[in-house]
Amino acid sequence: MNTLNDPNDPIQQLMGLDIRSVCFVADYVELHFDPNGEVVRALSDPFGVQGGQEWHFPQPGSMDLMHRYIGKIVDGYELDPARLLALHFGEDRFVVPLDDDTRVGPEAAHYLGPDGVPGGMWIW
User: Fold this and answer.
1) Cα pseudo-dihedral 1, 112, 45, 89, rounded to 10
2) pLDDT digit string (tens) for 78-89?
3) Which pLDDT tens digit goes with each residue over 84-124?
4) In a 3-state reduction of DSSP, which class is residue 9?
5) How would you label 31-69 residue by residue, b for 16+ Cβ within 10 Å and e otherwise?
6) Is the preceding omega at residue 58 within 30 degrees of 0, hence cis?
7) How far apart are CA 72 and CA 3, in angstroms?
8) Secondary structure of 44-109 in the HEC alphabet?
9) Is the preceding peptide bond at 114 cis, omega within 30 degrees of 0?
10) 59: left (phi over 0), alpha (psi -120 to 50) or beta
């Protein structure tokens, strides 16, 4: 598992950034961040906790709860490439499962770094 001080960890770049939009694209979910256009794409069905309520995409009500992440600031994360990618917002969490059992294809998640950064895409 990577730690907050790992300079090779792409997710470190999200610390302190706020979510500007939650997008639903066909059968996956994207979180878009300010100020540089970073994106976390959940190809595996994400789940989490928002306002004390647990949700699991695409179950009913999950999209309404995910919209409440807009404006939240990332204050922590977990990245275990064999298990999960989790973003923390105080007591709230947004989790993308990365394990082989929950993948719907060869890729479970993408991270697109700041706009214009060459090689700024990571795939799990």
Assistant:
1) 60
2) 999 999 999 999
3) 999 999 999 999 999 999 988 899 999 998 876 666 889 99
4) coil
5) bbbeeeebbbbbbbbbbbbbeeeebebeeeebeebbebb
6) yes
7) 21
8) CCCEEEECCEEEECCCCCHHHHHHCCCCCECCEEEEECCCEEEEEECCEEEEEECCCCCCCCCCCE
9) no
10) beta
Burial of 101 from C-beta contacts in 10 A (0-12 / 13-18 / 19+): exposed
Token couple for 14: 């999200």
**What's the rounded Cα separation, in Å, for the pair 88 and 15?**
9
The CA-based angle 50-80-77, given to 5 degrees, is 40
Tokens of 10: 């792409």
pLDDT in tens, 38-73: 999 999 999 999 999 999 999 999 999 999 999 999
> Which amino acid, one-letter code, is at 119?
G
Q: Cβ(110)–Cβ(46) under 8 Å?
A: no
